[in-house]
Design a protein that fits this description.
binds inosinic acid, binds magnesium ion, Rossmann fold, alpha/beta, 4 helices, 6-stranded mixed sheet
């Protein structure tokens, strides 16, 4: 699915052309499915949803409203990209949740898995704190990993080999506010 922008959305993007890859309705339908699946996966126990900022902020807020059970919410801030479109390979944890993780079911919410480096780093860090379980829900996955990360339990959509923006994802902090997911590399 790929379509041109309305003039209104083009204005929102600035000068650079962006192709729609996943539109608002498609995203909303998938997020509702993921919410149902997560609800069913945790019939009991304490659920802590950890959103990886900033990229997951829109997905996270839509997703938690589709999870029909008690939960706590916190954030993680990791930085692995500068202003470029290629991973710098450095993962820094800029904010770490204060909440004790011991015995809790953790769901890490991420925007996109590219090289998987950020997620692998985080998993090592969080698993050391003895949570009851850890699973990852990523909106997008570029499917570049030869061996999938075992904790990757939910993926919204397989991502095309492009640089994606919108619905929380940025390029040098631009485009996060787009209501759809678009491709910046075609333009
Ligand atoms: P990884 O460590 O290579 O898997 O990179 C993951 C992080 O890089 C994601 O959390 C995003 O913030 C960012 N990223 C990777 N690919 C894209 C993309 O296509 N668009 C926007 N951000 C991306
Ligand atoms: Mg991110």
């Amino acid at each position: 699915m790929s379509s041109q922008l309305t003039p209104e959305m083009q204005r929102r993007c600035g000068g650079r052309p962006v192709q729609v890859v996943f539109d608002e309705a498609t995203i909303a339908k998938r997020v509702a499915e993921l919410g149902r699946e997560i609800t069913e996966a945790y019939p009991d126990g304490e659920l802590l949803v950890l959103g990886l900022l900033k990229g997951s902020f829109i997905f996270l807020s839509d997703l938690v409203r589709q999870i029909d059970r008690p939960l706590h919410l916190d954030f993680l801030v990791a930085s692995s990209y500068g202003t470029g479109m290629v991973s710098s390979g450095t993962v820094r944890l800029l904010y770490d949740p204060e909440t004790p993780l011991e015995g809790k079911h953790i769901v890490i919410v991420e925007d996109i898995i590219d090289s998987g480096r950020t997620m692998k780093h985080l998993l090592t860090l969080l698993k050391a704190r003895q949570p009851g379980s850890v699973a990852v829900c990523s909106l997008l996955d570029k499917q570049l990993l030869p061996t999938p990360i075992p904790e990757m339990r939910w993926v919204g959509f397989p991502a095309p080999p492009a640089f994606l923006v919108g619905y929380g994802l940025d390029h040098a902090e631009d485009y996060r506010h787009l209501p759809f997911i678009g491709d910046l590399t075609d333009g």
